[in-house]
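A reminder from the course coordinator: this example appears on the midterm review sheet, so study it carefully.

Given structure:
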């Protein structure tokens, strides 16, 4: 894994301290999280419990009618392992009511709307509990733009936002997250059969190696080619990073 290897215990200590600092700065003691049954949300939940204790976290399962039952099982497994308060809120009625008006909407529109509906629910539940919304995104997704603006990106802070996907897996194993959650194909579960890597057209391991070489090691395409990287893949990654730059900054405003 080379430069992508982390020291799990040091990483854990750093993130736990970060969570506590963010909570103290906000003057809050509680968090809510959307628990999907996937690696990132499970890891974020485990980290929150390590930092604040199980009483501080409430998890919400927010399935749609096409959600894979395995995702729900895995989310319940993680919630049970952590012994945290959790609740299931089916977003199907909310989403379907809207798209009754737009029956020809494609699955991308529907998927983005689902992500934003889930976040609307989380923010409402955070208000009901005087809590903050815990982010679950990783660095790979942020750099590639594989996120929904004002959907899964919306949060108070992201404890794993500085980790590439392959590094999240390392930390998850250290935290004792069930192997079935760590090893399952990553999926936003927005439609049947959907996987992250299938939709992006690149494996996380390949993306992480390229992103690490570009952003952490400062290597240009010539150096990457000399090391055996597929330049067409490198160019694809660069295009994805450039095209999604707007997602990684606050909306610009015209200066006075």
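Designed residues:
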């Amino acid at each position: 894994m080379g430069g992508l290897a982390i020291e799990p215990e040091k990483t854990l200590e750093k993130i736990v301290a970060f969570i506590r600092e963010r909570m103290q700065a906000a003057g809050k003691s509680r968090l809510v999280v959307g628990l999907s049954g996937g690696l990132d949300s499970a890891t974020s939940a485990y980290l929150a419990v390590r930092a604040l204790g199980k009483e501080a976290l409430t998890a919400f399962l927010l399935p749609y009618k096409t959600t894979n039952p395995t995702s729900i099982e895995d989310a319940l497994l993680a919630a049970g392992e952590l012994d945290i308060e959790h609740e299931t809120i089916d977003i199907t009625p909310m989403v379907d009511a809207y798209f009754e008006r737009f029956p020809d909407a494609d699955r991308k529109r529907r998927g983005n709307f689902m992500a934003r509906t889930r976040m609307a629910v989380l923010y409402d539940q955070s208000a009901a509990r005087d809590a903050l919304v815990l982010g679950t995104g990783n660095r790979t997704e942020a750099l590639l733009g594989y996120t929904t603006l004002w959907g899964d990106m919306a949060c108070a802070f992201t404890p794993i936002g500085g980790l590439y996907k392959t590094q999240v897996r390392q930390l998850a194993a250290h935290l004792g997250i069930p192997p079935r959650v760590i090893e399952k194909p990553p999926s936003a579960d927005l439609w049947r059969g959907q996987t992250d890597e299938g939709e992006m057209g690149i494996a996380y391991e390949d993306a992480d190696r390229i992103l690490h070489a570009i952003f952490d090691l400062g290597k240009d395409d010539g150096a990457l080619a000399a090391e055996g990287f597929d330049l067409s893949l490198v160019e694809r990654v660069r295009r994805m990073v450039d095209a999604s730059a707007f997602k990684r900054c606050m909306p610009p405003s015209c200066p006075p």
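The chain has twelve helices and four strands. The chain has one domain: 2-248.
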